[in-house]
Every structure is written in structure tokens, then in C-alpha cells.
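ASSEMBLY PREDICTION REQUEST
Request ID: AP-0331
Submitted by: J.K., bench scientist
Number of chains: two
Total residues: 1138
Priority: normal
Notes: Please return the full assembly, not individual chains.
Input sequences:
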Amino acid sequence: MPAGPDTHLLLRAFVDELARCGVREACTSPGSRSTPIVLALVRDDRLRCFSHIDERCSGFFAVGAAKAACRPVAITCTSGTAAANLAPAVIEAWQARVPLVVLTADRPPELREVGAGQTIDQIGLYGSAAKWFFEVGTHEATPERVRWMRMLACRAVWTALDGRRGPVHLNFALREPLVPPVELGEDPLPGRSAGRPWLLRGGPGPDAAAAGRALAVLARDAHRPVVVAGRAEPGLDAIGAACHSLGWPLLADPLSGARRGGAAVAHYDLLLRAPTFSATNAPDLVVRCADLPTSKPLRAWLESLGDDVPQLAFDSQAAWQDPSASVHAVLGSDAAATLVAAAVRAPATDPAWLSAWRDADARAAGAIDDLLAGELSEPRVARELGARMPAEATLFVASSMAVRDVESFTAVRDDAPRVLCNRGANGIDGTVSSAFGAAAVSSGPVVLLIGDVALAHDVGGLLAARRGGLSLTIVLLNNDGGGIFEFLPVASERDAFEEHIATPHGLDFAHAAALYGCEHEHVASVEGLRDGLGRALDSPATTILEVRTARAANVALHRELAAAAVAAI
Amino acid sequence: MPAGPDTHLLLRAFVDELARCGVREACTSPGSRSTPIVLALVRDDRLRCFSHIDERCSGFFAVGAAKAACRPVAITCTSGTAAANLAPAVIEAWQARVPLVVLTADRPPELREVGAGQTIDQIGLYGSAAKWFFEVGTHEATPERVRWMRMLACRAVWTALDGRRGPVHLNFALREPLVPPVELGEDPLPGRSAGRPWLLRGGPGPDAAAAGRALAVLARDAHRPVVVAGRAEPGLDAIGAACHSLGWPLLADPLSGARRGGAAVAHYDLLLRAPTFSATNAPDLVVRCADLPTSKPLRAWLESLGDDVPQLAFDSQAAWQDPSASVHAVLGSDAAATLVAAAVRAPATDPAWLSAWRDADARAAGAIDDLLAGELSEPRVARELGARMPAEATLFVASSMAVRDVESFTAVRDDAPRVLCNRGANGIDGTVSSAFGAAAVSSGPVVLLIGDVALAHDVGGLLAARRGGLSLTIVLLNNDGGGIFEFLPVASERDAFEEHIATPHGLDFAHAAALYGCEHEHVASVEGLRDGLGRALDSPATTILEVRTARAANVALHRELAAAAVAAI
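STATUS: Completed
Returned structure:
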């Protein structure tokens, strides 16, 4: 953009439109070239701006905030590798369908590829992970161009939200001077009246009532339907009542928000390890909502059902989640609305069908409770959090072991807390930052359940506690290495396993807490966890509750739990 | 690749060829999908394998190692955002022309875009920053295919080295089982005899003798030539003698390795701030070697020389460094060899020309020494390190202020230590990791000069001290924020400056040292720095020597130094 006030006038209008379209949060990082964008964001009173030294943290913070708030978050950073540090979060946002508006600062064309500082090729930097890339170019702030800029901002937001949600990337070529004149002056073209965005886009999606009628017709011949619900933001809380009224077992990942109510089945990951149970409880109709749950036994079971068992998937965002090519039909309508519509018309299912699932679930729950009584363990921590966290709280879980334990061992609970996780690309990177992002926009407290490797990976994310004054309760399962790898065949390759796969680090996270101004305590018993959780949730500080576990014992316990649950049903 | 031993046989042959081509270091990170690549690397005795929990650190570690060792380094990581975390380092390697062989693990096609875990679009993931991208596909380990695999590995290494050096990216689709059978068996096609690579590529570059004759002809009419030398790895130590024999002032960035000998001018950044000096010492021939130095006054001076003053650039790697479009001719030959050849034939330059520069440099040096006597300050730290570090040591400097202070305030020294910096994209990211990478392959000690924001950005890089048992001396200039931004106009935008540009963090890095098992001491005087440096260089541990400074005072001191140097000449 040209020198003088033009850049600043154009960016002020751009940011004005972001705010008019509903953006409420923005993330910044230090830098010089991004100054015009940062100033425009910071000077708009409708936006809360969060500063992050590390752009990777900034990106994942934005992912967490957008997930928890269910609205697009803006991010900016300076030119060069700063922008590349956002790549992991942009990719997670693409995979997990999280709306982000990424505004990278760049040098203008005359400073590209000539050895000017901090200049890299930012054109299409995020490749296929950006839903939309746009090179903004340089402009004078004529009324026509401000008008175009307002439209561009709206288009960025609506594109992030439309259909399959995701990140959009606008690259701004910025010329000096990078600071505005003292008096920036009037807007050459003010926005529309009454705070309306320049451009609105939206409207109804596919007709849920019609889809519900179609589903009811399909279900007419089904005697043993099951509903499988995976990760969804906002949660699928509303499907529980419909499933209950239909008499359809609801196999609900905690990430779906639907592990509640009279139809929910919690321990499908354990139940489906029992060959007899899986075989005798094979469904004749599968309705899948949102993402596929993580559970391998569930995925294998769905794959094994036979090619004539209809499997329907609600996939309003074109996520195409079906690794086994089992799906027969995809519905683009809203899952909850469609199930509610179907419940009105579908015939009642024999109550024995739901009871068979619920009874087995209760027996598995009993076996788990028996085995987990006493000592604190990784599965017990997951079960405890599911049972004890306040209803208004959010549980953010790390990928890798934490999300699997929460899926396997969290019981059905009608007032279950919300559970979030970065399950788009399932990376362990950025987890701390995303949890802080969720904490920044959530009204209730946020608890992060995380392992030591993921915490070591994003340890810099703890800086949000100090700089942002944000409060988070971190329950750290520390087994000094990647516990999940102990479950894999590679664990027997002893020459390489410890050093290159398990990667024990010997970190004493009390020092990390001291570095970032967090509270830290060791927790060694169930009572200790309960007490610590109580204190942490009451504290305005970020607290790390560290549970030490042993990797080998953890593997053994998981195998015992599976065996006990299978034996119980 | 198919199940069974095939994958492992192919990868063993691939890694065998990497080693035959001269690769000696590899970096790994934890993960499951990358198991076959990790095992092949770890099980080749010719490779030292460094494990990193954070792939971003791994990538920058590889950059530092490849820079310091001047040979390609291999990196692998698991699928998903793990690979995206390498992006900043891959981009730095592209910009700085550092050879890397990036081997990403991926899921096979049938697990892509179907909701399988940890799967993202890795095809062309690094965009234009990868010199070469290749999707390896899946193969059986037939002799023909092993032969092709051996060629592929050689091609990866030679492509990273050929012409413009840089990173290459090979994406490996890997199917289960990911661990090899107990007995992997014979190689279906062993490599060539006598440890030779399957394919050698190389040969002489453009003829330096001929280029030298051409340069001598050009120089015949020149009475006032100057040589400007910027970042180069390996260093341009050899040009000093040629410049001295030619009587050509050598304006040498410490990153060139050429700030030594009787022709070197150290304080050009300050000299060229004096309008009289710049005008009266305008050259009639400029010879540029390697990258452009960072100095803004130097860059502005080169731009101002007039379009008829011939400027020649040695650019054997097609870096195209010329932001002001001042270069008349580019020579593809080796700078040192060409200058040596030219020195034989070029007429002697009036010794007064070199003396004018050297005398001014000496006066500037005197003024700097006077002003820096006494208290420890950021410029004094840079000057001390340049003067005191052992000749066999390496100084790794962070981008941002550290590299500028080293350029401005390091004196000429015949046994100057090597100076390295990530100046490709000039990011502050990954600096700690790159310095550890340099330390891992250097025979002498390595000192990192870094500011607090860069250290906070890559604090996780310190884990290399603990896990890799690596020793590094870190001289930390802590002014609690981005000191460089105080020099910019944005410093007057007070509503946004502190929080979003300067980003003070209040970190006490003693806790970071404790977390990662490093020594830490505060240094508050010149003697303290000397003593601390002595202890740190003798210690097998990584030591952080922390110098507290104030941002505002630092700006004032820099302005005083410039004024004093200008007044002195």
C-alpha cells in the first residue's frame, strides 16, 4: 500500500468490517512490518487483542478461542518466518474446520526476492490448508477502494464461515511509513448504517425437516439403529433427547457434547473389544454425526458391519470422514434438527435394543470403577475429571493419550462439561496455547488434560498465563515420555525406542511453572486431585496439577481395564 | 510402501546412500508413522542422530548443524502438523541456502482425506521453499526398485547441494507394519563397491581464473574500488589477502568471516553515517561478495553511488541480493579465487585510498572504545565477544539487535572467531536450536548472543542441553522486550507499543535454566562478563550469562556511539 495515511485508512475500514461481521478477538505478535495491521486491530474497541511472542502459540491460541467461542478469530504477524510459524495452526484449523482470518504483513513487490530483510515467499504460504488466499496488493484510499476493502473484509469472514469452515489468508503488502500520521482523518467511505456489515452472507442450509422425513423412511425397516457422534463444535447436546425418544443407542464421544441423557453409551471403546457383544449387537442402521470418534475398536466395528448395513453420515461441512469407505449416504442437513424431525415419524424401536447397550455400558462402568478404585492412574484422572468438573466448565484435552482416555473412561453425565480437543490433525503441538485461547473466551473455567510431551512441545504457550493474565487449570499426566508409544509394536525396538520414540526428557515442570508464574503442585491420590482441582478452579492463577505415572504400568492397567470390562458384560 | 520387510529394505538402502553421499547428521522427533525412517537412520552407524521433541527445534537445529558443518543434514518427523512445524526452518534454509534433506512420514493414499488420524495434505507442503519436492509412493523392494531408491537418495543430496543450495523434501507414504521383522535380511541390491554413492554429481563451477581476468580489466580504470563482503558459509577468509594486495578496502560483515587482515574495515556502519566521509570516499568500483551486509547506512550508500559506478556481485548460488537494483554485473565464480586471480593482474591502487578507510576505521574504533569504557552495555557485549572469544570458537548471533550490534561494534581481528546467524529470513524463531545444532558439529566452543524475545520464542530449544548433552554458552541481553523496536517510529504509538510491539514478558530466565538443566548467572560488569565467559567456556554444561539492560538507555547509547564515531573521523 502506498505511503502516507492511505494504508491506515484502508486497514481501519477493513478492521471495522471484521468487527461488524462479528469478529471479537484478534491475536498479534511483535514485529515492524505488521505495525499498520496491529494498530488498526488494537484501536478498534470492539476487539480484544491478545499479544503473543511466539506466532505458533498465537495461531493455536486463535484456534482454541475460535473453537470455544464458535466465531472467527483474526490473527496477524509480521513478514518472514513469523508467518510460517502460523502454519501448524492454520493446518489444524483447516482439518478441524475452525474459522480463522489470517492477516499476514508482507513487504511490497519491490522488496521481494532481492535480499531485503525478513522477506519470504508468502503467496499461498499455507497451500491447500487455506480455504482462500488473497494477495491484497497496494492501493490508495479512494472511496471506491475503501468500499472494495470493506467488501474484502466481509468476504474474508463469510468465506471462513461458509460451508466447510476454515482459515482464510490475506497477505498485505505494506510500504513505509508504517505508522499513521497523528491525525488520520475521516473515513473516505464510512460503513453502512446501524453497524451493519458491508456484505451479509448466510441463509438456511439444507432442509432438516425433509432430511428427517427421509431418515424416518430409512429407519422404518431398521430394528437396531445406532447413532455414533464424534467431535462437534458447538456440541450436539440436542441429539440425546431425539435418540432417547427413538430408542436408538447413542455412542457418543465426549467431544460430541452428547454423552448425556438416557440413550448415551459411554464405554463403546471397551464394549466393542468383546467379540460376542460386537457380534450380537450389530446394528442394521448406523447414523453418524459429525467427526468419527477416535476409538479404534469403534472404527473397526463400523468397518466390519457388512456392506448392506446402511451407514448414514451427517456431514454438513464436507469433512468426508470415512476411512473404511463404509458410508452409504451423506446428509448435508443439521444432525440434531434432522434427528428431531425423524423422531416424530420413525416407528418405535424395541426398548430391549437400547437396554442391551445401556446395561452392558453400566456393567462396563462398574468394572472400571472397581478396578480404578484406590490409586490414582491416568484412566482414573480422566474418569475423575469427567465426573467432577463443574457443568459450566470446559475440559480441553490433548491429542495422543489424553483424548483416548477421556473417550474410554468418561461416564455418561447429564450435566457433562464441554470437552474440546485439537482433533483436526491430531497434533500435540500448540495444545497449551489452544487451551488458553479457550479460556480467554469461555465464561466458565477451563481445565487442560495434557501429557508431558505435549506440554514440553508447547511450553512457551504458558507465557499466556503471565502476559495475558489468563487462568487455566492444567492437569499434567507426567510419565516422562510419550506414553502412547508403549502401546505400539515399536516399543520392542529397544535400540531406538527410548531415545527417538519415547523421548524421555527428565523435565521438572515446577521450574516451568516458576518461569511462567503458574502455581504448581504434585498430586498423588484421588483426594489430592479433588482438592487440587478445587483450589485450582478457585484460583485466579494458572495452576499445574502434576500427576506422576509410569508408562509400563499404564499400559498394563489399560489392558486390565479392557479385560475387566469385557468380562463384565 | 507395502507391508512386510519391503519398506524397511528400501529405507535402509536410501539411508545407506545418504551416508555414502556424505550426510553425517540426522534429526528425529517422536511419532509412530515415521518409525521406519527413524529406525533406518538410527541403525546406520555413520549417522549421528539427534532427537528433538519439538519439530520446529529439530528443523532449526538441522539448519545450524548444516551451516556449521557445511554439509547436508537429514531430518525426519511423523505425519500431520509435525511436518508443518518444520516449515519455518525449511524456509530459513531456502532463503539462507542451507542444504537439508527433509524426509516426512505420511499416511498412504487410502488414509488421506478420509478422517484417518494425523493426516494432512503434505504434497508440496513447503511450497516454493523446497528446492525439490518428491512424493516417493509405495514400492516393493525388488532389486530394480532398490536401485531406483539408491539413486533417489543421491539425487536428494546432490539437489540440496547443486547450484543454489537449499532444502529438498521427500514425502514417504508408509503402511503398517511400521516395524521391521526381526531378521530384515539381505539387501536386494547392495550399493556400489568401496562405499561409493550410487550417483556422484559435481564438477567445477564457472572458471575463476577467467572471471579474475575480466575483473582485472574492469579494475584497470578504477582508482577507488571497495569490496563489500556479507554472510557466507564457509567464510570468505581468503579474500582478505587479495584485497590487501590490491589495496582495496574490504567492508566486511563479521558474518563473512573476512573482518580480518590489513584491508578490512569494521565500522562502515558508523563511518557511512558521516555525510562528509561517505561523499569523499565514494568508490568508482564496488565488488560485492556473498550476501549483502545488514547495515542500513551501507545499503543506502551503495544505492546512492550513482548509476555509472560499476557494482559487481559474486552470486554463485543465484541469491539475487540487490534490493536497490544497483548491480551492473553478476559473476558466478568463486569470490576468493576470482579476487586472487585479479590481484595478479590488476594495477596497484594508490595506498592512500586504503589508508583513508583504515584510518577512519581506527578513529571510529577509538571513539567507540572511549565511549564503551566502563559500564557493560549491549554494544560493549558485542565488542567484547568479538575481541575475547577464542579463535577456534563460533559466535552464533540472533537476528534483530544482536546481529546489528555485532556488525557495528566488532573490531577487525586477524584470528576472529567464526560468526554465524540465521540471516536467510532474519527470523528470531529457532535461534537457540540452530546454535545447538552448530555446537553439535563444531570442534570449538559455541557462544550464542541472543536477546530475551528470541530466547523466549525458542525457549524449548534449551531442551537440547538436557537431552542431547550439548554444551553452549548463551549470552543473553535481557531488556525485557524487543529492544530493536525502540529505534522505530512505532515506539511513539504508546497505546499499542508496549503490549503489542515491545512485548515485555517479565521472565526470569534463571527458571528456564533450572528447567533445562543449564547454569545461569547474572553479569553486570565487563569483568563479570569476562570471568563468566571463561567459566562457561570451560564448563561441559550449557550456561546462560544474563546481562540486564534497559531499552531506552540502549537507544540513547547507540545514538551517542554513532555521533562520537562520526565526530572522530
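REVIEWER COMMENTS: Chain A has a mean pLDDT of 95.
SIGN-OFF: pending second reviewer
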